[in-house]
Amino acid sequence: MTPEPLCALVALIGGYLLGSVPVAVLVGRNHGFDPRETGDRNPGFWNVMRCLGWRAAVPVFAGDTLKGVLAGGLALAVSGAHTTGNGVVTGGSVVPVYLAVAAAMAGHAWPVFAGFRGGRSVLTFVGGVAVLCPPAFLLGVVALVLTALPARSFAVGARVGVFCLPLFQVFFTPLWQVAATGALMCLIGLRFGQAARSSQARRAADGT
Protein backbone atom coordinates (compact mmCIF):
# COMPACT_ATOMS: atom_id res chain seq x y z
CA MET A 1 0.00 0.00 0.00
CA THR A 2 1.31 3.47 -0.91
CA PRO A 3 1.87 5.86 2.06
CA GLU A 4 -1.15 8.10 2.63
CA PRO A 5 0.30 11.47 1.43
CA LEU A 6 1.76 9.86 -1.69
CA CYS A 7 -1.47 7.94 -2.24
CA ALA A 8 -3.47 11.18 -2.16
CA LEU A 9 -1.02 12.79 -4.58
CA VAL A 10 -1.22 9.86 -7.01
CA ALA A 11 -5.02 9.93 -6.76
CA LEU A 12 -5.21 13.65 -7.51
CA ILE A 13 -2.65 13.80 -10.30
CA GLY A 14 -3.65 10.49 -11.89
CA GLY A 15 -7.34 11.33 -11.66
CA TYR A 16 -6.89 14.76 -13.18
CA LEU A 17 -4.76 13.53 -16.09
CA LEU A 18 -7.20 10.71 -16.84
CA GLY A 19 -10.12 13.12 -16.70
CA SER A 20 -8.30 15.52 -19.02
CA VAL A 21 -8.33 13.09 -21.96
CA PRO A 22 -10.70 14.97 -24.35
CA VAL A 23 -12.64 12.00 -25.70
CA ALA A 24 -15.41 14.04 -27.34
CA VAL A 25 -12.91 16.40 -28.97
CA LEU A 26 -10.91 13.46 -30.35
CA VAL A 27 -14.04 11.75 -31.68
CA GLY A 28 -15.30 15.01 -33.15
CA ARG A 29 -11.96 15.68 -34.80
CA ASN A 30 -12.15 12.27 -36.43
CA HIS A 31 -15.46 13.39 -37.97
CA GLY A 32 -14.22 16.82 -38.96
CA PHE A 33 -15.78 19.04 -36.31
CA ASP A 34 -15.08 20.44 -32.85
CA PRO A 35 -17.93 19.89 -30.35
CA ARG A 36 -16.72 22.98 -28.45
CA GLU A 37 -17.72 25.10 -31.45
CA THR A 38 -20.86 23.24 -32.55
CA GLY A 39 -24.33 22.64 -31.09
CA ASP A 40 -24.45 23.56 -27.41
CA ARG A 41 -20.62 23.66 -27.42
CA ASN A 42 -20.35 21.08 -24.68
CA PRO A 43 -17.59 18.54 -25.45
CA GLY A 44 -19.54 15.58 -24.17
CA PHE A 45 -21.75 12.67 -25.14
CA TRP A 46 -25.04 14.53 -25.65
CA ASN A 47 -23.63 17.17 -27.98
CA VAL A 48 -21.76 14.61 -30.06
CA MET A 49 -24.88 12.44 -30.22
CA ARG A 50 -27.01 15.35 -31.43
CA CYS A 51 -24.44 16.35 -34.04
CA LEU A 52 -23.30 12.92 -35.27
CA GLY A 53 -25.85 10.36 -34.04
CA TRP A 54 -25.76 7.51 -31.55
CA ARG A 55 -23.21 5.34 -33.29
CA ALA A 56 -20.53 8.04 -33.33
CA ALA A 57 -21.34 9.08 -29.75
CA VAL A 58 -20.94 5.61 -28.19
CA PRO A 59 -17.14 5.95 -27.87
CA VAL A 60 -17.67 9.26 -26.07
CA PHE A 61 -20.16 7.67 -23.68
CA ALA A 62 -17.78 4.79 -22.97
CA GLY A 63 -14.65 6.93 -22.79
CA ASP A 64 -16.03 9.59 -20.47
CA THR A 65 -17.45 6.94 -18.14
CA LEU A 66 -14.19 4.97 -18.24
CA LYS A 67 -12.28 8.03 -17.06
CA GLY A 68 -14.13 7.90 -13.74
CA VAL A 69 -13.72 4.12 -13.50
CA LEU A 70 -9.98 4.25 -14.19
CA ALA A 71 -9.38 7.15 -11.81
CA GLY A 72 -11.27 5.43 -9.02
CA GLY A 73 -9.59 2.11 -9.79
CA LEU A 74 -6.14 3.70 -9.70
CA ALA A 75 -6.77 5.23 -6.28
CA LEU A 76 -8.29 2.00 -5.02
CA ALA A 77 -5.23 0.04 -6.11
CA VAL A 78 -2.62 2.34 -4.55
CA SER A 79 -4.59 2.65 -1.30
CA GLY A 80 -4.73 -1.09 -0.65
CA ALA A 81 -8.06 -1.90 -2.30
CA HIS A 82 -10.18 -1.79 0.86
CA THR A 83 -13.72 -2.89 -0.03
CA THR A 84 -16.65 -4.65 1.56
CA GLY A 85 -17.99 -7.98 0.35
CA ASN A 86 -20.25 -6.29 -2.21
CA GLY A 87 -17.42 -4.15 -3.58
CA VAL A 88 -18.18 -0.89 -1.77
CA VAL A 89 -15.03 1.13 -1.09
CA THR A 90 -14.28 1.33 2.62
CA GLY A 91 -11.58 2.07 5.18
CA GLY A 92 -8.36 3.68 4.00
CA SER A 93 -9.44 3.63 0.36
CA VAL A 94 -12.46 5.91 0.72
CA VAL A 95 -10.71 9.29 0.77
CA PRO A 96 -8.20 8.48 -2.02
CA VAL A 97 -10.95 7.21 -4.32
CA TYR A 98 -13.13 10.25 -3.70
CA LEU A 99 -10.12 12.49 -4.37
CA ALA A 100 -9.39 10.65 -7.62
CA VAL A 101 -12.98 10.85 -8.85
CA ALA A 102 -13.19 14.54 -7.96
CA ALA A 103 -9.90 15.16 -9.78
CA ALA A 104 -11.11 13.22 -12.84
CA MET A 105 -14.30 15.29 -12.90
CA ALA A 106 -12.22 18.47 -12.64
CA GLY A 107 -10.00 17.19 -15.44
CA HIS A 108 -13.02 16.56 -17.62
CA ALA A 109 -14.39 20.02 -16.85
CA TRP A 110 -11.06 21.85 -17.27
CA PRO A 111 -8.83 19.51 -19.31
CA VAL A 112 -5.15 20.35 -19.53
CA PHE A 113 -4.99 18.53 -22.89
CA ALA A 114 -7.78 20.60 -24.48
CA GLY A 115 -7.19 24.21 -23.51
CA PHE A 116 -9.14 23.85 -20.22
CA ARG A 117 -12.40 23.87 -22.19
CA GLY A 118 -14.27 20.77 -21.05
CA GLY A 119 -17.66 19.31 -20.33
CA ARG A 120 -20.01 18.83 -17.41
CA SER A 121 -18.48 15.67 -15.91
CA VAL A 122 -21.72 13.69 -15.59
CA LEU A 123 -20.46 10.44 -17.10
CA THR A 124 -17.10 10.71 -15.35
CA PHE A 125 -19.02 11.04 -12.09
CA VAL A 126 -21.11 7.97 -12.93
CA GLY A 127 -17.96 5.97 -13.68
CA GLY A 128 -16.53 7.03 -10.34
CA VAL A 129 -19.66 5.90 -8.49
CA ALA A 130 -19.30 2.50 -10.19
CA VAL A 131 -16.05 2.14 -8.24
CA LEU A 132 -17.14 3.84 -5.03
CA CYS A 133 -20.39 1.93 -4.60
CA PRO A 134 -21.12 -0.73 -7.25
CA PRO A 135 -24.54 -1.69 -5.81
CA ALA A 136 -25.75 1.93 -5.99
CA PHE A 137 -24.43 2.16 -9.54
CA LEU A 138 -26.34 -0.98 -10.56
CA LEU A 139 -29.53 0.30 -8.95
CA GLY A 140 -29.02 3.54 -10.87
CA VAL A 141 -28.88 1.56 -14.10
CA VAL A 142 -32.10 -0.21 -13.13
CA ALA A 143 -33.75 3.15 -12.39
CA LEU A 144 -32.57 4.43 -15.76
CA VAL A 145 -34.09 1.49 -17.62
CA LEU A 146 -37.36 1.47 -15.67
CA THR A 147 -37.79 5.20 -16.32
CA ALA A 148 -36.53 5.36 -19.90
CA LEU A 149 -38.73 2.55 -21.23
CA PRO A 150 -42.17 3.98 -20.30
CA ALA A 151 -41.00 7.54 -20.99
CA ARG A 152 -39.43 6.44 -24.28
CA SER A 153 -36.56 8.77 -23.49
CA PHE A 154 -33.01 7.79 -22.60
CA ALA A 155 -32.37 11.38 -21.49
CA VAL A 156 -35.17 11.25 -18.89
CA GLY A 157 -34.01 7.85 -17.65
CA ALA A 158 -30.41 9.02 -17.42
CA ARG A 159 -31.38 12.03 -15.31
CA VAL A 160 -33.38 9.88 -12.92
CA GLY A 161 -30.60 7.30 -12.67
CA VAL A 162 -27.93 9.89 -11.92
CA PHE A 163 -29.93 11.87 -9.37
CA CYS A 164 -30.93 8.68 -7.56
CA LEU A 165 -27.35 7.50 -7.03
CA PRO A 166 -26.87 9.19 -3.63
CA LEU A 167 -30.28 7.90 -2.51
CA PHE A 168 -29.31 4.34 -3.38
CA GLN A 169 -25.94 4.78 -1.73
CA VAL A 170 -27.66 5.39 1.62
CA PHE A 171 -28.29 1.64 1.87
CA PHE A 172 -24.61 0.72 1.54
CA THR A 173 -22.37 3.44 3.01
CA PRO A 174 -22.22 5.83 5.98
CA LEU A 175 -24.05 9.11 5.50
CA TRP A 176 -20.84 11.12 5.31
CA GLN A 177 -19.92 9.20 2.17
CA VAL A 178 -23.35 9.94 0.73
CA ALA A 179 -22.70 13.60 1.49
CA ALA A 180 -19.33 13.33 -0.27
CA THR A 181 -21.10 11.96 -3.34
CA GLY A 182 -23.50 14.88 -3.16
CA ALA A 183 -20.50 17.22 -3.07
CA LEU A 184 -19.22 15.63 -6.28
CA MET A 185 -22.59 16.33 -7.86
CA CYS A 186 -22.23 20.00 -6.94
CA LEU A 187 -19.43 20.22 -9.50
CA ILE A 188 -21.90 19.02 -12.14
CA GLY A 189 -24.33 21.72 -11.02
CA LEU A 190 -21.56 24.32 -11.24
CA ARG A 191 -20.73 23.26 -14.79
CA PHE A 192 -24.38 23.41 -15.87
CA GLY A 193 -24.62 26.90 -14.37
CA GLN A 194 -21.51 28.03 -16.20
CA ALA A 195 -22.84 26.58 -19.46
CA ALA A 196 -26.15 28.41 -18.99
CA ARG A 197 -24.37 31.72 -18.41
CA SER A 198 -22.17 31.18 -21.48
CA SER A 199 -25.24 30.40 -23.58
CA GLN A 200 -26.98 33.57 -22.38
CA ALA A 201 -23.87 35.61 -23.15
CA ARG A 202 -23.72 34.19 -26.70
CA ARG A 203 -27.42 34.93 -27.31
CA ALA A 204 -26.96 38.46 -26.03
CA ALA A 205 -23.95 38.95 -28.31
CA ASP A 206 -25.87 37.57 -31.30
CA GLY A 207 -28.69 40.00 -30.61
CA THR A 208 -26.49 43.06 -30.71
TrEMBL record:
GO terms for molecular function: acyl-phosphate glycerol-3-phosphate acyltransferase activity. GO terms for cellular component: plasma membrane. It comes from the Bacteria. Its EC number is 2.3.1.275. It is found in: Cell membrane. Pathway: Lipid metabolism; phospholipid metabolism. GO terms for biological process: phospholipid biosynthetic process. InterPro entries: G3P_acylTferase_PlsY. The chain crosses the membrane at residues 7-27, 97-116, 123-151, 171-193. It catalyses: an acyl phosphate + sn-glycerol 3-phosphate = a 1-acyl-sn-glycero-3-phosphate + phosphate. Belongs to the PlsY family. This is Glycerol-3-phosphate acyltransferase. It comes from Streptosporangium saharense. The lineage of its organism: Bacteria, Bacillati, Actinomycetota, Actinomycetes, Streptosporangiales.
